[in-house]
Amino acid sequence: MPTLYFKPGANNFWETVGNWFTNANGTGAAVDIPWTDDNLYSSYDLAFATGVTTQPRTGGENCQAFGLGPITGTCSIPFSIGYYDGDNWQGMTIYYGNYTAALALNSGSIQGGTFQSSVTGSQESTTITDGTFNGTVTTNGSTISDGTFNGPVIQNEGSQITGGTFNGAFTYVSGNVTGGTFSNGIINQFYRNGWPPPLVFTGYNPNALDVLGTGMV
């Protein structure tokens, strides 16, 4: 599969067409922004140009939606989904694509795609509503309502989990869990109003549930 390479120039914006090239050495200018629309690059893989380690910034004024296509390529570039606070905040949405590097979800949402590495949600406005996650997912204020989580999930303060299938180890630190199917790991300290279903436990440690005082041992 052909590859498009990221080499930042005057800025490191994803939506700057001048930052993308058809050759690994940063030559052969691209003629469109990859993956933001159903264009000729929707089937391309995305990678750093030789020697580049600066991550692209995403979610600016011209890149409000990400991954429309559908996308069939693989992105091996780590990046943040959406700008940081005070950096022209703009929500983004990922619908498609295969991602092999770590991603930070700062604004917007993930509504599809396959994620092989870690994903960290860091704002209350960020959501995960679908997708397949094979790496560690850490929530810091974000909401998970659906998706398949084959890797570990760590839920931190302010996070909401209302649904999803959790096949990996689940670590609850704080937050609210009101739905989901949990099939592995030790499940403990859920709020009592999360039991009985929509919480479903198919492979739980029963002693952990007894922390709730449910009498299930």
Structure description:
It is a single chain. With 217 residues, the chain is mostly beta strands. Helix content is 2%, strand content 29%. It contains one helix and 21 strands. The termini are far apart. The C terminus is likely disordered.
Brief write-up:
The chain is mainly beta and 217 residues long. It has one helix at 206-209, and strands at 3-6, 20-21, 45-48, 74-75, 79-81, 93-94, 98-99, 103-105, 109-115, 119-121, 127-133, 137-139, 143-144, 148-149, 153-155, 160-161, 165-166, 170-172, 176-177, 180-182, 199-201.
Which percent band covers the strand fraction?
Answer: 25-35%
Domains, number: 1
Q: Helix tally? A: 1
Using only CA atoms, what is the Rg? 19 Å
Order of helices and strands: EEEEEEEEEEEEEEEEEEEEEH
Biggest sheet architecture: 12 strands, parallel
Structural class: mainly beta
Helix content: under 10%
Taken from the alpha-carbon principal axes, the silhouette is elongated
In total, the number of strands is 21
Extract low-pLDDT stretches.
Answer: 191-196, 206-217
End-to-end CA span: 53 Å
| Whole-number mean pLDDT | 81
